[in-house]
């Protein structure tokens, strides 16, 4: 237990650890006179921490009875995942300042407090009323104690007792310490049960089949010798990037792209009785695929009279169109020029070149053309002329009827897959983009960083991925990229990585609408067909970054 009576520091009247906490809060830009309204996010109520802590918290609540105490549990990101109050008046007072389940109480959001400060210090500490950094919290006193995984010693969360009083009783520390010890013991029991299931699944799989096999779950990574040999220098933890689809299904098959090292078919299935246990079987290694001859774009060098290249922005439509032209002379027509310039001149030049050109005409973004221009393009691609056509457009399923009629006249289509559905290719794509920009360096991504990147919606697709690589190769330091090295906008929360398929699609739609609306929530809500209140609620539930919306 922290000694709440130790001397003040530097004549400020504050204990040393409290004075340092105030300095951190000031550096974070926390306003001590702010009303205390905190950002609220959805939390995982089925986490290992919650499963282990809930029986202990219920027993502790019974012991405290009607006493004016409030119990709070926060996860390692300092989001409150549980709250109980023995007195309604105390509960209402905390709620009035936004302190409840889902609120984030780290020092960067709420200054010195009984959850954020113990998390920062890594030990139990009492925060007496006047020691709170926020003025609105000075009417409360609290004691917080961090919870650690007994084996890894990693911080799992913080347990706090709060009361409406100027000081904390010395008896609170030992009470909370015992509760934390009980929670940590239950974490071990739960981990042992889960670890046993993971080991048994691995044992059964390796006994039944001789293929390269791995099991991943929590901090556990089990792999047989055949798996290690098949992966070579690649860490088996990289297999985590293939598990996203298992949130909706029990079994998936993907191809793990290792760039120059080749491609490996991987079969993945959930392990019953575990939160995130996955069993992997690896197939035979296949030769690496030349990006310029990617099988998703396998088409003749000289295309037929008209080819459509469809996909979301940033998926490589323009590059694919030029690849399809092969050695032909290429003339590019951008539909945006027809909208912003002289549309009649644009159409006239197209007709002229279609009759005289013997190479390939690339028409970018045909879905933006008006019906008159589309009629001209339709006639040009069906007429027996010398030129060949490659058209690019938005995904076919999103095209309006009058554009779909034009698309139907293209005898060949190439549909580009969005990056969010190609997460199993992330290691190879990152390696290739890094080599293109800095051949003298190689970015090495940790499995945790790859897992977080694999959970991103990637509305900008390959363009957005290339921007990330540009930022990383510009760093003067190490080439190893861990979770903390990623730009803040790419760090997905645990809540985001656990979303199901429908939730992920909804989150992507909201992020895209906010970006297209320039952050204006009112316009984004209108575009999505919902009220602004509903949009706020969905943003909190789906962990959409607040900074995407400005109003």
TrEMBL record:
It comes from the Bacteria. Keywords: ATP-binding, Nucleotide-binding, Transcription, Transcription regulation. InterPro entries: AAA_lid_NorR, GAF-like_dom_sf, Homeodomain-like_sf, HTH_Fis, P-loop_NTPase, Sigma_54_int. The keyword Phosphoprotein does not apply. Pfam families: AAA_lid_14, HTH_8. The keyword Repeat does not apply. Residues 414-474 form the Sigma-54 factor interaction domain. This is Transcriptional regulator MimR. The gene is mimR_2.
């Amino acid at each position: 237990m922290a000694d709440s009576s130790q001397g003040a520091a530097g004549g400020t009247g504050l204990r040393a650890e409290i004075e340092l906490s105030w300095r951190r809060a000031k550096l974070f830009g926390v306003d001590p006179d702010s009303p205390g309204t905190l950002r609220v996010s959805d939390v995982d109520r089925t986490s290992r921490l919650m499963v282990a802590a809930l029986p202990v918290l219920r027993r502790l609540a019974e012991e405290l009875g009607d006493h004016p105490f409030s119990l709070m549990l926060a996860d390692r990101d300092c989001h409150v995942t549980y709250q109980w109050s023995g007195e309604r008046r105390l509960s209402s007072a905390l709620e009035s300042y936004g302190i409840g389940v889902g609120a984030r109480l780290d020092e960067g959001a709420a200054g010195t407090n009984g959850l954020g400060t113990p998390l920062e210090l890594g030990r139990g500490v009492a925060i007496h009323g006047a020691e709170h950094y926020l003025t609105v919290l000075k009417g409360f006193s609290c004691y917080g104690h961090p919870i650690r995984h007994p084996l890894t010693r990693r911080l799992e969360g913080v347990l706090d007792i709060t009361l409406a009083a100027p000081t904390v009783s010395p008896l609170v520390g030992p009470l909370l310490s015992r509760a934390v010890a009980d929670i940590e013991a239950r974490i071990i029991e739960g981990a042992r049960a889960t670890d046993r299931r993971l080991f048994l699944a691995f044992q059964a799989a390796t006994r039944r089949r001789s293929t390269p096999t791995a099991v991943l779950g929590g901090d556990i990574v089990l792999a047989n010798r055949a798996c290690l040999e098949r992966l070579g220098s690649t860490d088996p933890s990289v297999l985590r990037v293939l598990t996203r689809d298992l949130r909706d299904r029990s079994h998936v098959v993907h191809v793990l792209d290792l760039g120059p090292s080749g491609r490996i078919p991987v079969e993945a299935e959930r392990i019953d009785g575990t939160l995130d246990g996955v069993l992997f079987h690896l197939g035979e290694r296949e030769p690496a695929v030349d990006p310029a001859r990617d099988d998703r774009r396998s088409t003749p060098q000289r295309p037929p009279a008209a080819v459509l290249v469809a996909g979301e922005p940033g998926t490589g439509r323009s590059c694919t169109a030029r690849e399809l032209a092969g050695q032909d002379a290429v003339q590019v027509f951008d539909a945006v020029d027809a909208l912003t310039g002289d549309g009649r001149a644009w159409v006239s030049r197209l007709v002229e070149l279609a009759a005289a050109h013997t190479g390939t005409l690339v028409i970018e973004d045909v879905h933006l053309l008006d019906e008159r221009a589309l009629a001209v393009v339709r006639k040009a691609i069906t007429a027996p002329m010398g030129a060949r056509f490659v058209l690019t457009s938005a995904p076919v399923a999103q095209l309006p009827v009058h554009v779909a009629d034009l698309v139907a006249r293209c005898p060949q289509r190439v549909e580009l897959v969005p990056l969010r559905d190609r997460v199993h290719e992330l290691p190879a794509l990152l390696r290739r983009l890094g080599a293109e920009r800095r051949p003298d360096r190689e970015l090495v991504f940790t499995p945790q960083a790859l897992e977080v990147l694999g959970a991103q919606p990637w509305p900008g697709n390959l363009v957005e991925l290339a921007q990330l690589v540009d930022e990383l190769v510009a760093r003067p330091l190490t080439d190893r990229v861990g979770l903390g090295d990623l730009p803040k906008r790419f760090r997905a929360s645990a809540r985001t990585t656990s979303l199901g398929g429908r939730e992920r699609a909804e989150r992507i739609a909201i992020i895209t609408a906010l970006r297209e609306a320039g952050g204006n929530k009112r316009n984004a809500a209108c575009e999505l067909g919902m009220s602004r209140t509903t949009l706020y609620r969905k943003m909190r539930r789906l962990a959409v970054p607040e900074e995407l919306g400005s109003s």
